[in-house]
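Journal club side-thread
Mid-discussion, someone asked how the predicted structure for our own chain would compare to the paper's figures. Pasting it here so we can look after the session.
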Amino acid sequence: MDIVHGKELHYEELGLKHRGSGLAFKHLFLGEENTPENYLFSIARQGDFYSPIHRHTFDQFRYAYRGDVSIAPDLLLHEEELCYHPEGVFYGPQLDEWGERDVLVLQFGGASGKGYLSFAQIAEGQEKLKEQGRFEKGKYHPAGGGEPKDSYEALWESYSGHPLEYPAARYHPVIVSKPDNDS
């Protein structure tokens, strides 16, 4: 295992636009592609960011390291708070417009075994789908006026070759840990 101090890593803009621009990452640990156990552990630097209501085929933890992060219109993850996004649970829309923030992100294949697509797999799918439509405000719009769908869902289906069936949610809603609450 290589150990690298986070200050030695540089933020990378990955060219992934399925949720819009304004994201850059320092990858701390990456899992193995094409396995149900694949994962991503990174620090995300967010500028302006928008994502529609959506859900995942994987589990996700977010820790607001610097600044506050929008989870939904009525849910803000404050600095030093942790939230858990179980697979299959809807959340959003997310709208962050007030400056820059850093978020520690862990995404990994959940109990359903559907796995987690790597950023490289998403980028590959994005290039393929851009030839057949466009990404806008977190949705994929097929050319010819087909019904728009969540951008990650379109990418997953393009990569897997079959329609996405979301796992049933095991918890509702997103779970937020608030360490400063005394009650």
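Post-session note: Residues 16 and 119 are 8 Å apart (CA to CA).
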